Amino acid sequence: MKYSLQTFFIAIVSAFFSVLSAHAQDTRPVYVGFDGAYGVKNSTSAQAIELGLKAAIHEINAAGGVLNGRPIELLVKDNRSVPARGIANLEDFAATQDLIAMFGGRFSPVLLQQLERTHELKLPLLDVWAAADGITNHTYTPNYSFRLSLKDSWAMPAMRVQAHAKGGDKIGLLLPNTGWGRSNQKALGKELEVHPETTLVGTVWYNWGEQDMLQHYQALIDSGAQAILLVANDLEGSVLVRQLGAQPNVARVPIISHWGVTGGNMVETSGPALLDLDFTIVQTFSFATAMPNARKVFEKTVADMAGVKDVEKLESPVGVGHAYDMMHILAKAVDAAGTTDRAAIRHALENLGAHDGLVRNYERPFSDTNHDALSPDLVFFAKYLEDGTLVPATR
Question: Is the pLDDT of residue 157 over 80?
Answer without folding.
Answer: yes
